[in-house]
Amino acid sequence: MVFPAPDVPSSTPVTVATAGEALMDLIQDADGRLRPCDGGAVYNLTRALGLQGVGTLYLNPLSRDRFGRGLAQALVDAGVTLAHEEPVHEPTSLAVVSLDDAGKASYSFYREAVADRRVDAATMIAQCAAQPGLKAVATGCLALVPHDSHKYLPWLQAQRAAGRLVVVDANLRPAIVPDMTAYRSSVMAALGQADLIKVSDDDLHVLGFTQTDSLLAARELLACTPARWLALTLGPRGAVFMTRDGAAWSAAEVLPVSVADTVGAGDCFLAGMLAALMHRPAMHSANRADALQLGAEDVEALLAHAIASASLCVQQVGCKPPSREQVLQRLAQGRPRCQSLT
């Protein structure tokens, strides 16, 4: 058995590789019934990148069960390349999602002996080395838990050493781990390999950065790592992009947003940011991540595209990432307001 091939082979070369969880979100409706939706933070990111025209390679295997076949089909339909063309016997991971009155999600996970965790560092390193046009790698969320650190951390270290842009989305899920000290240590080890960190204000508090001002907390986190850039999401208040040398920009939506739920909002935000980055001349002129330079115009484009992507996502139930055309159409209606904070 092999997963379905795309109807039309993609002509877009692979430029981004992603590694991390792919699971089914079982979203609890008002009547208590559970509604399955494709999910997992890295899976959402991967699918969103494909839909926005980024040549993307997904490194984790998927199950041969019904859920796994559906997850694979959605990635293929989005133009994503599967590193594992054959399914595995292990079942698909599950997450039970509860929504509060504002549509904010909380999660319970079922992750033992599941398909997407059947990875190892050596295989992922080899899969990335086989992609001559690979410019960036991205991971985060459940890939950062302590018991999987030995799989993902050596892979991240190898990608950084190879000069690829390393992107890590903290996206913490404290409910999944019993030992918060070990969890924080594992997350910080991964962030220590990142060129670009994405973090929410909630993530900062879980990591122990408890300043009232989220920008100061984000600055402290950035100073604890060698990362050059940090993107801080602030929910309905927008986002901030900051650099290691002290520059910062904020951006907020100007168009109306009718929130259905926030599932996948951060994933679509990051996908929008990376999609915009992959289309910037600065990305194509840099041979290595440490040679990449981002000016104010670049940052404003990244923030605008990221916020538009997230805004389109939250207006749907479950994570339904927008296409590049949908994002561009929303930006044509009104670009997020962006301003320098320095």
What's the short version?
This protein is 35% helix and 20% strand. The chain has 342 residues and is an alpha/beta fold.
Keywords:
342 residues, alpha/beta, UDP-N-acetylmuramoyl-L-alanine:D-glutamate ligase, 10-stranded mixed beta sheet, 4-stranded mixed beta sheet, 11 helices, globular
What does this structure look like?
There is one protein chain. With 342 residues, this protein is of the alpha/beta class. It has one domain (16-340): Ribokinase (UDP-N-acetylmuramoyl-L-alanine:D-glutamate ligase, 3-Layer(aba) Sandwich), CATH 3.40.1190.20. Helix content is 35%, strand content 20%. The protein has helices at 41-51, 66-77, 121-129, 149-161, 180-191, 201-206, 214-223, 265-278, 281-285, 296-314, 324-333, and strands spanning 16-18, 23-28, 34-39, 56-58, 81-82, 93-99, 105-110, 136-140, 165-169, 196-200, 229-233, 239-243, 248-252, 337-340. Strand 9 (165-169), helix 5 and strand 10 form a beta-alpha-beta unit. Helix 10 crosses helix 11 (324-333). The chain is globular.
